[in-house]
């Protein structure tokens, strides 16, 4: 059974694609969501680890960080 990781991200970028590919290659199932508390709450019981990558959007995602 694959382990699941919640990837909290905003938009798409080369870096996000690389992170997601490397996690998938390492036999993880990646659940990607926007930095929205409702989306995070919906999936938090399904995953063992959260990875947050926001890049230039970190200032816009302050609500999900608190």
What is this structure's SSE topology?
Layout: E1 3-9, H1 14-25, E2 28-33, H2 37-43, E3 49-53, H3 62-65
Parallel strand pairs: 1-2, 1-3
Listing every helix as H and every strand as E from the N terminus to the C terminus, the arrangement reads EHEHEH
Mean pLDDT: 84
Distance between the termini: 32 Å
- Biggest sheet, open or closed, and with what strands and sense? 3 strands, parallel
Q: Please state roughly what percent of the residues sit in beta strands, choosing from under 5%, 5-15%, 15-25%, 25-35%, 35-45% or over 45%.
A: 25-35%
Structural class comes to alpha/beta
Number of helices: 3
Large-scale geometry: flat
Describe, in plain words, how this protein is organized in 3D.
The chain is of the alpha/beta class and 66 residues long. The chain has helices at residues 14-25, 37-43, 62-65, and strands at 3-9, 28-33, 49-53. The protein has one domain (3-61): Rossmann fold. Strands 2-1-3 form a three-stranded parallel beta sheet, with helices on both faces. The mean pLDDT is 84.
Question: What keyword list fits this structure?
Answer:
66 residues, alpha/beta, Rossmann fold, 3 helices, 27% strand
Task: Write a brief caption for the model.
By secondary structure, the chain is an alpha/beta fold.
